[in-house]
C-alpha cells in the first residue's frame, strides 16, 4: 500500500509540473510580440500553433491519466 501511494503522489506531482510547464510556454508564446512569432516569408504563426498543440496534448494526457485509473477501478468492483 505504501508503494502505491508513493507512486501516485509522484505521478500527480509530475503531471502538475508538466501541465505548468506547458501553460508557462503557452503564456510566453501568447505574450510575445507578433513580429517574433510570424515567419516573414508567409506570415504564418507556426510557433503559436505548436505551443497550442502541445498544450492540448498535455491536457489530454493528464486527463487520461486521471480518468483511466478511475474507470479501471470501477470495472474491477
Largest sheet: none
β content, as a range? under 5%
* Helix content, binned percent: over 70%
Q: Compute the separation of the termini in Å.
A: 18 Å
Instruction: Determine the structural class based on helices, strands and strand pairing.
Output: mainly alpha
Task: Supply the number of helical segments.
Answer: 3
Rg measurement, Å: 18 Å
- The figure for the number of domains is 1
Q: Give the H and E element order.
A: HHH
Average of the residue pLDDT scores: 76
**Total strands:** 0
Gross morphology:
elongated
Q: Which segments are poorly predicted (pLDDT under 50) over 5 or more consecutive residues?
A: none
Features of the shown structure:
single chain, 77 residues, mainly alpha, 3 helices, elongated
Describe the 3D structure.
The chain is built from three helices and no strands. It is mainly α and 77 residues long. It has one domain. α1 packs antiparallel against α3. It is elongated. The protein starts with a helix and ends with a helix.
Could you provide a short overview of the structure?
With 77 residues, the protein is mostly helical. Helix content is 84%, strand content 0%.
How is this fold's topology laid out?
Elements: H1 2-31, H2 34-37, H3 46-76
Amino acid at each position: 500500500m505504501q508503494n502505491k501511494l508513493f507512486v501516485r503522489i509522484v505521478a500527480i506531482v509530475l503531471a502538475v509540473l508538466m501541465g505548468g510547464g506547458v501553460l508557462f510556454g503557452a503564456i510566453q508564446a501568447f505574450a510575445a510580440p507578433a513580429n517574433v512569432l510570424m515567419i516573414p516569408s508567409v506570415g504564418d504563426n507556426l510557433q503559436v500553433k505548436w505551443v497550442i498543440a502541445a498544450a492540448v496534448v498535455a491536457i489530454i494526457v493528464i486527463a487520461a491519466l486521471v480518468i483511466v485509473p478511475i474507470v479501471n477501478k470501477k470495472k474491477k468492483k
